[in-house]
Specification:
With 204 residues, this protein is an alpha+beta fold. It has three helices and eleven strands. The chain has one domain: Nucleoside Triphosphate Pyrophosphohydrolase.
Length: 204
């Protein structure tokens, strides 16, 4: 059983009473010229109180003799109608920091135990459409720890996640290959790959 075994059965309008994770809102605002305008937006309904973010994305690097590799996932995403290539990620629970959420989600989704080492500014996934946001958290993994030898992911019943790693050195080209095979590329890992290519091009 794998993520690719999933398939779309039907698509239909969702009533407000059925919505659990998100809602549509109409925003009224004034533009720089003073004109009143409106904007359609989607909002998550799950952001914890006293939190400035919805979730976290996780940059987990495994240092190998052949070179650093980034941990990725394959997961079927119904809105994309495809299996996506993503970094591990998840929603923040009430009372959690971004760093705590990242360490928890990494263990739940991959089995790896890590420590948060660096956290990004708040980033918005698609600000022209929704208010969903996150912080990217860099997590270091000590491969010498016994718990990182015999991995035990703790996936929810509805989660079907395939974990794999990919060399950072040719991440951009490998993602292009995966796209050619029919996978959808999540913007977080795609943007990271673009950044690596720019660093190579301009010798940053």
């Amino acid at each position: 059983m794998s993520a690719s075994d999933s398939k779309i059965i039907s698509i239909e309008p969702l009533s407000e009473t059925e919505a659990v994770w998100s809602k549509m809102v109409k925003i009224t605002y004034k533009d720089p010229l003073g004109a009143t305008r409106t904007w359609e937006s989607s909002e998550r309904t799950t952001r914890p109180k006293n939190s400035d973010i919805d979730g976290v994305g996780i940059v987990a690097i495994l240092e190998k003799e052949s070179g650093p590799e980034i941990m990725l996932q394959k997961q079927f995403r119904p809105p994309a109608h495809a299996v996506t290539i993503e970094v591990p990620a998840g929603l923040v629970d009430a009372g959690e920091t971004a760093e705590q959420a990242a360490v928890r989600e990494l263990k739940e989704e991959t089995g790896y135990v890590g420590k948060a080492s660096k956290t990004s500014p708040v980033m918005f996934n698609d600000p022209g459409f929704c208010n969903t946001n996150l912080r990217m958290v860099h997590v270091t993994i000590d491969m010498s720890l016994p718990e990182n030898q015999n991995l035990k992911p703790q996936l929810e019943e509805s989660e079907f996640i395939e974990v794999f790693t990919m060399p950072l050195a040719n991440l951009f080209d490998e993602l292009k290959k995966l796209e050619g095979q029919g996978y959808a590329i999540d913007a977080r890992i795609g943007t990271l790959a673009e950044g690596i290519e720019l660093a190579k091009q301009f010798k940053l």
